[in-house]
Amino acid sequence: MTGSVGKRRQGGYRVLPTPDPDTGKACYSSMRLLFITSNRIGDAVLSTGLLSHLIDRDPGIRVTIAAGPASAPLFEAVPGLERLIVLNKARFHGHWWRLWRAVGLRKWDVAVDLRRSAILNALRAEEKLRVPKPVQPIHRVDVLGSMVGRADNPPLPKMWWSPDHEERAAAKIGSGNGKILAIGPTANWQGKIWPADRFVSLIDALTGPSGPLPRAKVAVFGGPGERQQAMPVLQSVPEDRRIDLVGTVDLLTAAAAMSRMALYVGNDSGLMHMSAAVGTPTLGLFGPSQEALYAPRGPRAAFLRTPETMAELIGFSGYDRHTVGSLMGSLSTDQVIAGATDLLG
Questions:
Q1: Would 264 disulfide with which of 84, 225, 248, 275, CB 3.0-4.6 Å?
Q2: Within the chain, what is the greatest distance between any pair of CA atoms?
Q3: Could you read off the pLDDT of 206-217 as tens digits, one per residue?
Q4: b/e string for 163-196 if b means 16 or more Cβ within 10 A?
């Protein structure tokens, strides 16, 4: 799961060598891949299955990735990474012009655009892949799989990180070999947040003396700026069993930490997708968002949702995403305890 250790410089940009499968020595392919992906962390994580497929298809291919500032750090340890371009949004679509100036003079073997921009039309590439616009609700991973003929068996999301990230994760988690419960109590808007007191009850049930993870440590995950959302859950965990990862680590250190968890339970968020991508048993909680499009995808991922559909939850008069409170109240603690216990089993 970790990224390549060896590094060298070429053309002013970082190049990560890919080991030759026969000799084990670093090798550099002449093939180049341009991969334009999402600004949102969750969508960017879901795109990594397609990226992994393209890298595996052409071993040693040199990779240039263009992503928004929020998601770009996810790709810092991608094998064969030659250049990571941060797409800061500009007025009048000026960011696309800046991107073309950075990549438009080179001929690409593969160019991928997951943002349906016009830039592919202005690029020279042997193979151009533009994400299609679904005509019906289809999971994002399935849509991306269809781009390479794998709609029925799409490549699953995958995360790469470096030994440095691994070391930082180990330092945060601390010593001991006990199992750790991971909780993701935050989200990018209030309506998607399962009430904090229910997360507290869930932790008590799972880590109590008769729970499936008795006396387990609890790692609480969240992003920068989400500390206030997470505080009720953080403060409920005894200090000797609490691991505070709310805005305290970068994305790839968080991914490395997630890979050490026994179970992750959290709201629909980018962190939930990261946990599923690293292979940790992951239970995503859904209400006013569409699990048909964004359920966690991974080897051990599952979801629960409110009895009401998204349309039913947000369809009331006066609904305002910016002022509404949690819309997850009808998802009971008992349901989540049962779902988490099943996933552990």
A1: 275
A2: 66
A3: 999 999 999 999
A4: eebbebbeebbeeeeebbbbbbbbbbebbbbbbb
